[in-house]
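ESCALATION

Customer reports they have been waiting on this structure for their group meeting. Please prioritize. Original submission:
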Amino acid sequence: MEPIVVIRGNDISFDGIATSLLSLKVPLIVVTYSWQGANTWYSDAYADQFKELVQIANPVEDEERAVSQLRELGRKLLRRSGKKAWIIASTDTNQNLIANNLVCLSAYFFMWGSKVFQLNPFSVIDKFHLSKKLAEVVPTNVPKFHAIEQSSTNLRSDLSSWIFPAVYKPRFKDYRQSFYANHSGVKAVEVQSIDGLMQKLEKETKKQPPLLLQEKVLFSGKDLEVPFYLCADARSEIVVAATGQKQWIKPHPFGTAIVLDITWHEELLTLAQSIVSHLEWRGLLMIEFIFCSKSLNWKIIEVNTRPWLLSGFFSRFMPFYEALVSRTSDEGEDNNKLSVPDSYALKQRHVILHEVCQEKSGNGGDHFDSVMETLTALAVDKELTAPYLSTRWYASRTKYLEKLGELYSWPRFAAQEFQRLFGVN
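Update from on-call: job pushed to the front of the queue and completed.
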């Protein structure tokens, strides 16, 4: 099997990609970079399983050099095998690095997206262009949207017919993820009126990406905010699918799910298939749906083209990466059998533990009882899973190990693994 190149970024996302592919005996070439104040990569604990570990410049600091080093890696792999190498981005920063340098990188790499696995131009990365494209096929499922141009002097008049509330967010992410850094980690900012929007925009920096204004979709319960995860084959047919339920979002309400259940909303399958077919998509994809209490239909909030944060968690119970790897060539065998969560998968709940512990313990102290009470409550009627990479916050607290071992399904990471990795006595 030819090696796959994975650009390492987010600890959790990368670990999910890497461990899923390694379990399938896929040789991994890991591209990595660092920055001032960076923590140790948890994946270094199993770096001996990588075929190769390649260091490049940080693209935030030196994009030209980083691209040159990627190009040199691509040349080497092309000479070695006579084929382009498959490359996977574990973060939006990595994905944008590839998308922004398509011309020079497409000679050496391919990635999922198009039916023939060409290096995809990723028009879907830009939320404005994506919204326009989706409105062509499912117009009633696309929230009202408007591109905010920083140079526009007619924004107030352009939005005279808008009904608020609304949210605005970056059309795409820059390398520094400026929007999130400037807004305490939230993915969107809510505004209640045109005046409120204009006041907020005055404070936005011009150095961040352009913004998209989107109708705020109102919904009545957390089971009506549904991420839909899928893998599509060469015919753009969905072959693996699951949904999730966000049990805990941090920061609320426009942050990341730190507690997530596997669910299955079969009623979304037809709509998801319409989107995948129209995008002519092949590979992994995540579509965020919300059931609008006003229009009484499902609205498309986001589409994420890179592996979602917890793809590794889902792949422990469903064949997302198996389906992906088995379809890396046009000669691969496709079939129409759809894989959806079984009863065991539907019992699973993932907890990003260090986030929960930080939330319950605050910035100081060791509120063991409070943390354990929360974790015990989360384990009711669910089988909890969490990889060791989520344990940085309390890795040196030995009293957690025994209790957490009672709550969590950790076949790969027993207490001795903590000891080996973190020097816990």
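Sent to customer with the following note: The chain has four domains: 4-111, 144-215, 222-347, 352-422.
Escalation resolved.
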